[in-house]
Amino acid sequence: MSQVSLRTTIAGCGVVLLITSMACNRVSDGEADAELSPRDALIARATAVELDTPYVPPPGDALTHHTSGFAKVLCSAVFITGLDADFAAESIGYFQSPYDERAKVTDRVVDLEKKEVRLTLPNGVTRVARYLGDQGCVTLPIGEDEVYFTPAVIETTLPDASTEPWPMGDLLPDEPFPADLDVEKVAEAVNAAFEPPEGLTAAFVVT
């Protein structure tokens, strides 16, 4: 067995052992949850770790806060990740802006020149998120055109990704595939893993 295969096997065994251990630790919880509906069981588990403090919502309009997060998500998706804005709006960031809330946005502008996203609400408020280089995307305060800090350039200590071997970098090995490996079958398996398109599969793990 090659060193790569050996390392892969060991890592896989570690994952299996971890999952098995977690499953064993949850047996008693699982027995209790079996008497509840899935929804009630989920709420019960959350309640068990809930802090004994009153909930105090942040001041201001909830929709405005949601849209602030939505603008930031879209900005990062377009100007950092390189995703299509329409795809990002339909697919990511619901923990910051639920679908029903983002549907209330009346106008959406992706400004490629300024590298910013502008979202207008029914009350006329516009939330703006701007790409600021090494600081990523930041939502501007309402009515402001600048952030309250001076963006800085972050000097990385990491090696050049183009010369660093994968997985720490982007450099792929140039050795040929093993002779007994059916490359076409591997390609078919990879393509199948990303089907159907509406599943929006972004990645998969081989164990």
Describe this structure in words.
The chain is an alpha+beta fold and 207 residues long. The two termini are 16 Å apart. It has helices at 3-25, 27-33, 38-48, 62-81, 85-91, 99-102, 183-193, and strands at residues 107-111, 116-120, 126-131, 137-139. Among the domains are: 3-48; 62-139, no CATH class. Strands 1-2-3-4 form a 4-stranded antiparallel β-sheet, with helices on one face. The chain is extended, with a radius of gyration of 23 Å. It has 7 helices and 4 strands.
Identify the notable features of this structure and list them briefly.
207 residues, alpha+beta, four-stranded antiparallel beta sheet, 4 strands, disordered N terminus
Helix content: 40-55%
Task: Let me know the number of strands.
Answer: 4
Low-confidence stretches: 1-27
SS summary, helix count:
7
Write the layout of secondary structure elements.
Elements: H1 3-25, H2 27-33, H3 38-48, H4 62-81, H5 85-91, H6 99-102, E1 107-111, E2 116-120, E3 126-131, E4 137-139, H7 183-193
Antiparallel strand pairs: 1-2, 2-3, 3-4
Quick rundown:
The protein has about 210 residues and is α+β, with helices and mostly antiparallel strands. Helices cover about 40% and strands about 10% of the residues.
